[in-house]
Amino acid sequence: MTQADQQTQPQAPVEVSPKNYLNEGYSLRSWLTTHDHKRIALLYMFSITFFFFIGGAAATLIRMELATPEADLVNHTTYNKLFTAHGVIMVWLFLIPSIPSTLGNFLMPMMIGARDLAFPRMNLASWYVYMIGGVFTLAALVLGGVDTGWTFYTPFSSMYSNTNVILVLVGVIIIGFSSIMTGLNFIVTVHTMRAPGMTWFRLPLFVWANYATSVILVLATPVLTMTVLLVIVERVFQVGIFDPALGGDPILFQHLFWFYSHPAVYIMVLPAMGVASEIIPCFARKRIFGYRFMAYAILAISILGFLVWGHHMFVSGQSVYASMVFSILSFLVAIPSAIKVFNWTATLYKGSITFDAPMLYILGFVGLFTLGGMTGLIVASLALDVHLTDTYFVVSHFHYIMVGGSVMAYLGGVHFWWPKITGRMYPEIWGRIAALMVFFGFNLTFFPQYLLGYGGMPRRYHTYPPEFQLLNILSSAGASILAIGYLLPLGYLTWSLFYGKRAGDNPWKATGLEWQTRSPPPKENFDHIPVVTREAYDYSSPNESGADR
Amino acid sequence: MSTDAQDSGMQVASHFESADQQRFAATLGVWVFLATEVLFFGPLFFGYLYGRTHFPDAFAEASRHTDVVLGSVNTALLLTSSVSMVIAIQARKLDNHQLARTLLWVTALLGLAFLIIKGSEYHSEWQERLFPGKGFAFSDPDLRSGVEYFFVVYFVMTGLHSVHLIIGITMTVIAALSLQQRWHKVSKERMELLGLYWHFIDVVWIFLYPILYLVGRNSS
After folding, report:
1. Could you tell me the pTM of the whole model?
2. Alpha carbon distance B66, B63 (integer Å)
3. Would you call A237 an interface residue with chain B, using a CB distance cutoff of 8 Å?
4. Which residues pair with A391 in a beta bridge?
């Protein structure tokens, strides 16, 4: 769409709601058989929200148990099942699909000026496959739970645990297929569906981030699939692959498992970085600093992410020389990560900053990601890691990345694009309150855990020495604030669906093709496929696209 | 553009701008899928490498228990099937549906022959008690656990390869049936993509054959 078109196009009257993707059909069938990427994104959003609160319920019970040193709420078996359920659900059913399958699914085609993803039917299939995998995982929970931890370390998972391990493993395999379908779809879409003029270096960084994420999804997930399949083979046929008693090698399992599960961390955090790169320029009214370096940094992180898995195994008995190499490579990841943080900061410098809820979430994201990343360097150091392995320091480190990073960015993104998705504004004051509560609650929950881990409290125990109680109480208190912070958006976002004020097409006066179409967008996204003539984040130009609408 | 699409028997979906764009997307999609497949077999090759370096003697001994004659025959069958697949694709491009159909059937039958021979190998290995697990038996106690590990890798690798082959045969048969005279329903693009998948199955076997049947076989 050219600029002249935008200015001449009349604004639709508020009373008449024009055809959009939401009022194309109201039946359940029209949702469950849709090929529209926007509707599939919402199906994903409902599903991951459901699983988020189940995983959150497990976390709540964990924090309640840990409020006192003794075992007074649950016994050790139940506790093992609780943290396994929390980990499995949060990693595979929430974090992996969180931003790519919801916001990415909704926005990527619009951001590149396409009518849909390249393979709409496969997109729908990926949601069904995801749900089937979720049913397997929930079935294992209902049938008594699993006590292996989300890492399924052998030989415990393959030989000794007498819980429903196979059911969960099958669930993980199935969810993996859904990840692969999404990743494949995104890669092909970015390569083939870009609008005229949308060159690679005009792509919004959110698209770059989801592209890099998709490469990881496609290349790492099959390794997990096969590894988990081998655990099932070992368990069913009682043959030695990973069990040393039968001639296998548990370190082999750890190598294969972390070859997926470390890149999986970048599956979770790269899209979050993409969201931050959209929101910060918009609320600083400035072009992003160092666009090309931001894009290269995303690619560098995704490539380096494949080469650092051994830092999870410093104390497992792998060769010390291997550990040294993995340690150095892990330090290298800090370089592109730091480029991103510095460039976000440089974008803020001398910007006209406003503190709307999405910006509050994202500023929180930058701070928490930085702290999570810095502690990552501490656990990537060989000698320090010996002391910190399997303590709450590690637990806190990865929660700073996954919850402080990914979940904050996810919520920021949901608020930022809520007017585009629903056509309605969320109540701003509640949005800010929730953002601050999440930030405060998060820090109160997890900062004490750094201290606990440094003091030597191991993870995955339901009891602890009494001297750790004060910090644990602080952590549990923070968790309750965090829980309210997460429940609030569920309430006011639902409220805004019916009573929120109409948003207009571009309430944030943001650049980006998704803001040039209607809110909510029509089924085909654009009335005419746009022609792109500008760089991304062109906030400094006097004739900002869409700014005067 | 539209006439081109009709010629090839392909319909352009509404979210694509042109037949070219759709063709590009479909082809790239299959290549990305094949990249996934390579990584899917990755842990097995890694596990094989682990066994080959940790139990060299047992792996050499175990590879002598595979049937190199049947393995070689199977390699020949599969390579030949790729040739017939390539010619079938060319025939479809030249609108020689009769020849394309015949060659697809030849391809499928060669694949089926591979499976039958593979099955007979599994049968004799089962009888020699080489199948890992409770029934596994091996005379030399020093090599026993390494040989059993070899056969775990062997059965998982060849088993998954066979699963892929069964899928490939099914799709080839469907394509052959759809090319019945009055239908001509398989577009030239689809034929190409089917061919990509078939050759991938072939390439996997080209790696499996030497590492399972040949390496270490004649070492002392």
Report:
1. 0.93
2. 5
3. yes
4. A458
